[in-house]
Each structure stands twice: as C-alpha cells, then as structure tokens.
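Hello forum,

I keep getting stuck at the same step: I have a sequence, I want structure tokens, and every attempt I make locally crashes halfway through. Rather than fight my setup again tonight, could one of you with a working pipeline run this one for me? It's a single chain of 700 residues.
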Amino acid sequence: MLDLAIVWHLHQPPYQDPQTGEIVLPWVRLHAAKDYLDMVLLLDEFPNLKLNFNLTPCLIEQIIEYSPKTDRFAQLTRKHASELTDEEKITILQYFFSVPIATMIKPYPRYFELLEKRGINFDPTNSTVLSKFLPEDFCDLQVLANLVWIDPLFRNQPPISELFAKRRKYTEADKQTVLKFMQEILNQVLIQYRKAFQAGQVELLTSPFYHPILPLLCDAQSASLANPKGRPPDWDFRFPEDAQAQLEKGMAFFERNFGHRPQGVWLPESAISQEAINVLASAGVKWTIGDEKVLAKSLGITWHRDNDGILLNGKLLYTPYLINFDHRSIILLFRDAYLSDLIGFEYGTWDSIVAAEDFYQRIKRINTQLPKEENYLLVIALDGENPWENYKNDGLDFLRHFYSLLNSSADIKTVKISDYLATQKDLPELKVLVPGSWVNGNFDIWAGSEADAQAWKLLAKTRKDLVDYEKKLGKRIDEAWEEIYQAEASDWFWWFGEEYYSAFSPIFDWLFRSHLLQVYRIIGKVNPGELDKPIQKIIRNFALPPKNYIKPIIDGKETNFYEWQDAGYFDLTSPLGAMDKGFNRTIEKLWYGFDETNLYLRIDVKNKTRQLKIEFLNLPGAIFISEKEAYYTYEDKKFDLRVAYEQFYELQIPKTLFNPLTSSIQLVVKSLKNEAELACSSVLTIEIPDERTKARFWQA
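Reply #2:
Ran it on my machine without issues. Output:
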C-alpha cells in the first residue's frame, strides 16, 4: 500500500537593508499575493486532502513586518508617474518586467506592448529609452507589474476584477487599489495556515531561522565529501554552534506563532550530513527530508527507472529510515526527485489537465508495482512558490484537477507525515549518510565557485573579528550575531558564481555584504575594504550581432570556415542565455544571419539533441525541428523549411513568413523529448536588418 506525502516549501530570504530597515525586494509581497494564500485556501475545496507545508521563520517574520512596512518596489509603484525621476524610471523599466513573458506578460496585451516598447533585452545604462515612455505608460506599468501577481483565485473579486477588465489607461487611484488588495492578502496568510492546522488538514514544518546550508555551517569540508571531484573548500568554517543557534531560534519562533513545536524540520535545500542530523536530533526533531540522490549514494546503489520515470527499485526510496547515535534517533524520509521535478520544471509546458492526469497515473502505477502486504510512503517535496508562474493560470487548473483526483481516490491516501510515522514500527536503520542536497546531490551551488569561496572567507573573517571583540569586551553582542546569522542564509551563495546569475544577483551580493558591514558598525570597527567591493562579477555580452550578410549551405556541417564567420550568435551556456531547469543543458549556441530573402539559423547542440522547438513571442506560430525535417506552423497551416543535421542543425527560413512591419523577432529555443520540454533558452531578440543595417553590411 502506498501513501502520499506532499510537501510544499515556502521561503524567502531576509530582504531588509540592515542599516535602514527598508525592504529592498518585493518577493514576499508578490508571492503572498500569488502563491502563499491560495495554496492553503485551495484545501477548502478538498476536505479529504492532507498536505504538509514548510514556512521558513524568516518568511513568517517578513509577512508579519509588512503591516507597518513596505518594500522599495511598492514605493516606486505608489509614486505619481509624472513625478518619477529618470533614475526611478530606469529602475522600473529594469525590474518591473521580471516575470516569465509567455505566462505573465504576453496574456496582457498592454503589458506586452510596454515590454516591446522597452525592448526584450534592456540595458539599464542606456537612458535613451526613456524618451519612448509617457507618464501614462509608466502608470500602466506600475499597475500591471503588480496586478499580474494577484492569484487567479482572487481575480473575480471586486475591485480587482474591475482592474483586470480595464486592461489599460489606469489611474493613480488604481495603483493604491492593487497595493491595498495585496496587503489584505498578506494579512490573511498566517491566519489561514493556523486555521488549516487547527482543522487537522495540514502539518506545518519549520527550518533553521535564516535558511542556512546546515552541513556547511557544521563543517565546510562536507562539500568535498558530497562531491570528491569538486573544488575543495580552501576556507575554514566549522561552527556547529551556529547551526544549533539557527535551528533553536527557528523552532522557538515557530512555537510563538503557531503554539507548538514542530515534529519535522525542513533542512534548507534538503542539505543533510551526519553533523547536521546530529544537530536536529539533539534539538528533539523527530524527522526530516532528504533527496533521492543522497540516499542512493548512502546505500551505494543506482536508481533505475522505466521509460515513464517509474522506479524499478522503488521500495528502497519509499521507505523511511532511522539514524541512531548517542542514544538518540531521528527518521529520514527521501523525496522522489524525478516526480517532484515534473511539477517543478516540466508540467508547466503541458496542458494543465493532461499534466494532472499524467501525474496521478504515475502515482497509481507506483502503487500497483509495490508489494501489497507492506506500507510505503511516496514523498513529493518541492518549492511551493516558484513553479507556478510557468504554468497557465498560475497552476490553479493543474492543482485543482490533481487535488480532485486525490480527494476522491480509493487507492491513494494523502497523509501528514507525523501521522504516518506514528503508525510505523521497526524502521530500517541507515548505517551511512553521505552528505548532499537536492541540487545534484552536492553543495557545489553554494560552495563550488570562486565567488562562493570569497563570500565564505569574508563571512569567516567577520565572524572571527566579532568573536575576538567579544572576548575583549567580556560579553555577547546579540545584535551583531543576528547579522552573522542572516549572512549565513543559503540564498546569497545561490546567486554567487555563474550558475544562476540574474538581474537581481548584484542586489543579493550587496545584501550579503551589508550584513557583514553592519557587524562592524555595531562593534565600532572599521570594515575591511573588500566588503565595499562586489563579490560577483557582472556577466554581460552573451550575444553578438551579425557583421554582414551570410549565405550558408544548408548541409548541417561546416562546409567552409567562413560561412558562419559574419553571423550573430547567442551563447546559450551563459547564465543570461539559458534557464537551467535541473536538466543538462542541451543547446549550446544559436547562430543567426540574413541574406536579402532568408533568415538562417545554426543551432549547436550536444548529446545529439533530436527535437527542437522555436517559439515566437511577438509572432504567431512556432518552428519544429528534427534531424530530417523542419516546419513552421500556426493555427492549421504548416510550411516545410530546409533543414540539415550532421555536426549541428542548419535551417533556412524565408523572411516572407514574418510580418514585413516587424523590426525584430523575439524567440525562445527549446529542446524536447517526446514533446516534453527538457531545456529552454531565455528570450532572444533578433533584429531584422533595416536600411541602415543593410548599408553597414554592404560597406563592411
């Protein structure tokens, strides 16, 4: 028999400027409006459903603090459009489009119109774009950039329904309306989670307060144990007492807000090690969750899945394990990463109903393959906030249908984890626990780059300077330790290095350094000069435009050295060019160029990627590409295109397929397998040559 535990992890790092107290980023407010409240309210429709939620303490704290405070982006929204300074306008244009275009901009014509006016690829150092925008444009943008974050569950409620119906020509009063509605949602979040807990429908977990990677706090060298082939830490950081302090602070804060100490703790990024587990067990934690990759390494096995991703040796994964030490024990559960990632990274590209049916049928198949005489637990655990902006209707259709199937299922029972574990006896013991996380089974994201190393060294030095100062002073300075603990948050280290660079990376860099700088302000010491310098190098120029017309031979290989020499290209291995979705990147570079009548594309792939799709954002239709054929399709029309593959894909596309008034083409390139999306580029903009460009080409 198979029970199902669904765990939604809700978290945001501390966004307050430690010196001024200003909230510098809006994600708590925006995700509350779009994700946090509806995720729990949806349960009212499905009384048989049991779910598990982890709300991190630093998220809860910020939700509470939003009543008297607000964030910088809300302040920019409130400001009268005619009174914005040029600097404020640039900030709005840079950040107020920071959502997926296909699902959160393109469905709203005015929002997409404003994006086209700004340009898909925006350089904040180029202020000439300001001349294109009138005050009424900024007013519409200020409203829409917030309005699209209102969850579909609430969009039929006045006055929000009226703002969606209005579509454009918003007023200053409309801005106040949407911000007030968001605050009302924020005010309900914790109330509704308490209500769901008291009704017995959810179990609530907590985390170490500021979401640190506990194994790296306990011993930085656990990074080498998790990945012996990775970059070994060349810094010393071994402070299990910090891990203990973060955990106890988080559990005490949770108890003050929910009236009980949780039995389960979510370790940030599902990062576990023996030392981290010891910290949990010493604090009386009953259970935690790891990732299937960590269990495989710990058992010394390899997972085998069939063509549908169903584990052939699933009994080992769907069993809780006991870890014993020093007369204490703790239970470890391990999530099915493949199934969890289907929700997190893949189903957003599917029809929502088809995806929900597919997921439910996979779970039923697992149930039929397991021995009936034994009881098993399938754990689906993932972020509860980040996937949904990639779904149509913010995932509401998917969740409703999936939950309805579970609610009426005679075969699959959803459970609160502590309730399930209370019925289990004689659990197998896990003798060896290899450190790791849910990202590639290691800690490389947080400790594997030069930028990570620099950040850890700065943190270690600041911590040492604080300890040395306290020894001389003869007492502990709690205010300074709060800054240390906030600097230990995993989120800063996530954005260091090149893996996940974004437009917000410099702000995360600054926030991290600001906490360390605040330590020196508190103890009255001059800060080391390196804290004034960004840790993360700003990554630019992942693309180059064409230098001249080209006319390659469409044969899928490099016929001569010069045929693509004058082409433009996008480097899709750059963090700015690709969106890593947990799969290996399969598209490396997109080359492009024109002659008088055609657009030519060359797509460099690895691992012989067999299916590609090019989706257009400002044009109808899409291009489907395989080794033997390519065609452009929209509505019920289909046009065959010239394509060849040997070393790479080469494609010839007649310019007559494009609107002659179109000055640029915005597209994304996707690799597919059986029509399912494996990887996707970011939005790429190809400028169609105009008369000036043609003149430059002919002069070259």
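DSSP finds 24 helices and 21 strands in the chain. If your local run keeps crashing, start a new thread with the error log.
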